[in-house]
Batch of 2 targets.
Target 1
Amino acid sequence: MSNIVWHKTTIKKSDREYKLKQKSFVLWFTGLSASGKSTIANAVEKKLYDLKFNTYLLDGDNVRHGLNKDLGFDEKSRIENIRRVGETAKLFNDAGLIILTAFISPFISDRKLVRNLFEKGKFLEVYVDASLETCEKRDPKGFYKKARKGEIKNFTGISSPYEPPKNPEIYVSNNGLSIDKISQEIIEYLKKNKYI
Amino acid sequence: MSNIVWHKTTIKKSDREYKLKQKSFVLWFTGLSASGKSTIANAVEKKLYDLKFNTYLLDGDNVRHGLNKDLGFDEKSRIENIRRVGETAKLFNDAGLIILTAFISPFISDRKLVRNLFEKGKFLEVYVDASLETCEKRDPKGFYKKARKGEIKNFTGISSPYEPPKNPEIYVSNNGLSIDKISQEIIEYLKKNKYI
């Protein structure tokens, strides 16, 4: 028991970045379902790992079954989903890690809210552009088929709009190139702009 | 456009731990308001930093104004607060970091739910024991005074129960010792039990 004022010795973001020998930032992948966001993000993460960087990837696999498992797919829930992913990415960023996220995040306004959580230049929007036709042909989980039948409601591209970024930091087209080439393009951008 | 099956090359927790040269785990601090959880957690984090470990600390400061800013302090919100902190800690754990959390987390059932998110042995409950009298005398933010006047409802220790852990992995008493000594006790536990 005491009246001593406790001085918090707090480890700061800059301390963590110094120890990890890197500067943190976020790569925010956006695009239609089956556009390849998650696959490309994983490939980029692998390349960053091989280059000795410390990263983490948030996507439906690790977020929708855990942190956001209370959320559905109605509009309100989808907005909250993206808000929480943004806030979690911010915590990872504060921890000094390079963070990648792969969510459809169809609305410009939601992505803008997330962008505003970060310092200028730390939020990089990566637009994975693939035509609806391409995505619908891929349809690895059969979602498009179900959406066309009306079995899934508010499905982006079918019954709910996708608003492409007007000025994404990184644009990649995933209508033909190999995943390796596309992910390498992103690595080149990061090198050229001194993120890595 | 292709029918190629994309093989996800996924960086796993074990890969990250290998790179970070550490094994991840969570130090979950629980105790009354003003028991010193956050101060001790910060001091432990500083010591871990000096020992070259990579850590992150979740507490009210970085969670309540961001990820959980939509939550109030009613019972339902407090349960959800702890659930989200647990899930976020799990993500950080998956990222290979040693994660510390400092929240009152007054209910055994909530802490048990969080414990069950982690592999056996990876969740370490740290009970910061300080008497209600001690905490109320400290009252750095004037919360106890307000709670006694009824201006804050459901305040742990006054108008809402605190359920101490029955078998915490780590027990520390914060009724007199210096923060430095208390945090060193925790470091010794981690060394002795080969966490660090």
Target 2
Amino acid sequence: MSLKALIDDNRSAIEADPVKASATFAVTGHLAGTTEVAICARHHGLTVDEPPALAGADRGANPVEHALIALASCQAVTYLFWAAQLGIELESVHVIAEGDLDVRGFFGFDQNVRPGFTAVRLKVTPSGPESAGRYEQLADAVDAHCPVYDIFSNATPIERNVAVTAS
Amino acid sequence: MSLKALIDDNRSAIEADPVKASATFAVTGHLAGTTEVAICARHHGLTVDEPPALAGADRGANPVEHALIALASCQAVTYLFWAAQLGIELESVHVIAEGDLDVRGFFGFDQNVRPGFTAVRLKVTPSGPESAGRYEQLADAVDAHCPVYDIFSNATPIERNVAVTAS
């Protein structure tokens, strides 16, 4: 099935039953080494870790790198889907995502410094036979519809519950 | 070196030279299959993919799952560091991160639906010999200093550049 047909099928299914538009994603994680975090996302397991400068063994990319991985991969997939939506031929897309962090926020050394990225830069290289203007149009559509770009760009409400387990 | 000593060393180094507080993280990604994205974060390679319902081969967790992986792992590591900062004994910490998505935002079927998570739930289970109140105090310190919690909770400026490559 083409991507365009998949999108049209989703549109028909959701118009008939809007509940089909809702999806919940869930992951679990726990400390499995000094800073090593063992993650399960459905049947996908992976390891997140810090480099030695943050007491870790560098057994995987670290948490903020995973935030950039989410952003870069979501951009790539959204380019694919929106190229299909807009009828734009796309042969490849490369993404570089960079984030600046001031660790005084994480460590609490300066209450005026935010813990997260102070700035993020996205460099996207789409390739194909269309005009530069068409790929600019695609980029604008992607940024308006990319889920992780939205998570970075806007506030998301978090409900947090802590359940203490006596040891 | 203890975590407390590592934190104190960072504080001294940054007080002496504030430039040492700045770090830039970068990842690259490109479409390597239908929806498969090949990622490099320093020397760590990994695969992000969509499930078959979104035309993928499910060769890895998908982009929004990676956003939750970033959040869950960052919470776990921040519990560890802030337990050390606050002198709270922490034997383990388990995190569940859930996010609700309405795909009408991604597909552009409804302009009033945001593409990102409409709600996120964090369930955190710290374990150890301290009182429940101490772990609640720890949880509050973590949420105030966790980089990825901040990225979810607040807007981050993104500078995006598109460089079209003629095919």
